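Need a sequence for this fold. Nothing fancy.
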């Protein structure tokens, strides 16, 4: 998810939400489905609360994924967290495109 991290994800549309597929790193191949209005991404996320990644550069509560109208937005929770790689660009927040 970051330049410092080996984690990368690719979003895909799910029937009632969005799926994120981890492309690289310790969690490569894992698919996470977000079907509510919001979900957490981090290294210490409850099983039913989001996307838990096993990477040393990912903070316990690293980012949040939420709906905003008909779009999915992702945003860092902790300003000290390494930037996210969203649609091939580093940033602190942005729209996730399928």
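Here you go.
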């Amino acid at each position: 998810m970051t330049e410092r991290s080996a984690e990368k994800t690719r979003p895909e549309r799910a029937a009632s939400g969005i799926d994120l597929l981890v492309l690289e790193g310790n969690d490569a191949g894992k698919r996470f489905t977000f079907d509510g209005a919001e979900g957490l991404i981090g290294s210490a996320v409850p099983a039913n609360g989001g996307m838990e990644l096993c990477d040393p550069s990912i903070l316990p509560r690293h980012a949040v994924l939420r709906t905003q109208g008909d779009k999915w937005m992702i945003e860092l929770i902790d300003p000290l967290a390494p930037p996210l790689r969203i649609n091939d660009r580093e940033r602190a927040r942005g729209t996730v495109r399928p």
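For context: The radius of gyration is 12 Å.
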